[in-house]
Amino acid sequence: MVKSSVFLALSLVWVTSVASAQEPAKPLYVLEDSYLRWRLLPAEQAYLSIDGKHLKQYVEDLTAISRRYRDHGHPQFWGRITGTEADAENAQWLLDKFRKIGLSDVREQSLDLPPQWVPASWSVSASASGKTVALESAQPTSTSPGTPASGLDLEAVDVALASEGDLAGRDLRGKAVFFYSADYTSRQAPISDYAIKRIGDRGAAAIFVIVGLPGNLRTQFYPVGSTVPTFSLGLQDGVAIRDLIGQSRGGQPPRVKIRLDVKTVPNLKTATVWGSLPGTGDETIFVVAHRDGWFEGATDNASGVATMLGLAEYFAKIPREQRRRTIHFLGTSGHHDNSGMTGHWLADHKEMFAKTALIINCEHTSAEQLVYRGGVIRRTNTTVPLRWYVGGSPRLEQIVVKAYDAFGVATYAEPEPSAGGEMGPYYQLAPSLQLIEGNLYWHSDRETAEVVPPTGLAASTRAYAKIITDVNQLGLKDLLRPQATEARR
Ligand SMILES: [Zn+2]
User: Fold this and answer.
1) Which of 200, 308, 376, 481 is deepest in the core (most CB within 10 A)?
2) Over 60: is that where the pLDDT of 224 sits?
3) Ligand 1 centroid, distance to 437 Cα (angstroms)
4) How many angstroms does the Cα of residue 188 sit away from the middle of ligand 1?
5) pLDDT tens-place string over residues 358-378
6) Ligand 1 centre from 93 Cα, in Å?
7) Complete domains list, the chain, with CATH
């Protein structure tokens, strides 16, 4: 008796705390104005001219380009998609900004794209015992095969977490297979320890990964290597289909109708947007940012483009005779379409980096820390810590560590051993560095400008400006990776 009333009291406490977590109290401050700011030492006051709110306007401009593309006949697969009019529009936008800032040699280098994967339209619905639910949040994984024009009509099965145990003894051949993943930030094949491959190997005819983030997010995955139509699904839709499957147990299993019209479009073009700030010598620094992105792509990579522009503005104000090295600014074609055109062009033109002191990749430089707590995603007044890579001499490493400390750039405890992604094809050709991270909304339709703190933009951009300034105090050979110095002997 005593026990059960204690239990009841505890449950009430638990229920109350869950309820309060779901409904935060009214805010006491305006979040946009109240993100934590780093107070700069007198020696760093010069970098105050790099203003986060000003950079945030660039993020707003770029996300508006995405929405325009969506609202002009692309309601399902949208963003600043490589090879589309959104790509052309943001290239033009960047050229204008480079010119306004006063960069030299501002130009667009046109690049021919390989045939592009374009999911023109799709629909997914499930029905059981007269009840039909449309799975609106379904989003095909990049490069997913389409269905025949008539679509697919498949039996639905739920394999829980798709662990080996969940799949043991299950016949998945020819079925639409749903699994749940708590691997919230993965948008890649390794999600849930390669569950998509495990399911595909067992003969599934379609695969759905339910991304366990609260709400009903649309998420865009990178290619997952699947040979059958494969989709991500928001949690609300995921629970609905799992309920449908569960409730029909012992009777007729639900059917899933899938139609995915994929086109392969040849002869599209993209571009690298170039601009330069000439220095006094013949050595160079490269500052790159990928222009493409899925959905609004506010962190990925409007934030990085804003950071690049912030650096261009900062150094354009410094007289040429005080600029030791020429800085090349590149708005790259990006990598979400899997072609990485700019990256491969640069890797094929190693001579570009013959006298390069530093490459800075501006990619995902600011994202609000979101916390999944009490069944909802809560906002906070701080930025996510960033993953970071630096490849160069120990002196370069120390310059970088000090700059992140000086401007309040939160990072993972250890740097990354390599730099994949946009800079992947060429980062080893010169000393190089990047900061990169998204939050829970990365690659989703919730990745809007709202969750890009201006303070994060300011911190990353100021740190990069200080790094460029400090690097310009050192000769080329003092910056190279130890193994590169060895190779040049
Ligand atoms: Zn990116």
Assistant:
1) 308
2) yes
3) 9
4) 13
5) 999 999 999 999 999 989 999
6) 19
7) 28-114+267-488 (3.40.630.10), 116-265 (3.50.30.30)
State which amino acid sits at residue 486. E
- Residue 80's φ and ψ, nearest 5 degrees, are -95, 75
CA 301 to centroid of ligand 1, rounded, Å: 5
Query: How far does the centroid of ligand 1 lie from the alpha carbon of residue 126, in Å?
Result: 34
Q: pLDDT digit string (tens) for 14-29?
A: 444 444 446 789 999 9
Whether 109 has a pLDDT exceeding 70, the answer reads: yes
User: Is pLDDT at 420 greater than 90 in this prediction?
Assistant: no
300 CA to middle of ligand 1, Å? Answer: 5
Residues 226, 121: Cα–Cα separation, whole Å? 19
How far apart (Å, rounded) are the C-alpha atoms in residues 317 and 322?
Answer: 10
Q: How many whole angstroms from 424 Cα to the centroid of ligand 1? A: 12
210 Cβ neighbours under 8 A, 6+ residues apart: 178, 179, 180, 181, 232, 233, 234, 235, 237, 238, 239, 242
HEC string of 267-333?
Answer: CCEEEEEEEEECCCCCCEEEEEEECCEECCCHHHHHHHHHHHHHHHHHHHCCCHHHCCCEEEEEEEC
Measure 91 CA to ligand 1 centroid, in angstroms: 16
Describe the crossing of helices 454-471 and 52-71 by its angle, rounded to 10 degrees. 120
d(CA 485, CA 489): 7
Distance 470 CA to ligand 1 centre (A): 26
Cα of 305 from ligand 1 centre, angstroms:
10
Q: How far is the CA of 17 from the centre of ligand 1 (A)?
A: 37
User: What's the pLDDT tens digit per position in 422-443?
Assistant: 999 999 999 999 999 999 999 9
User: Ligand 1 mean position to 82 CA, how many Å?
Assistant: 13
What is the mean pLDDT of the segment spanning 280-292? 97
What is the model's pLDDT at position 486? Answer: 63
The confidence score (pLDDT) of residue 488 equals 55
Q: For residue 320, how far is its CA from the centre of ligand 1 (angstroms)? A: 32
pLDDT at position 130 is 86
Would the pLDDT of 476 be above 60? Answer: yes
Q: What is the DSSP letter of 221?
A: P
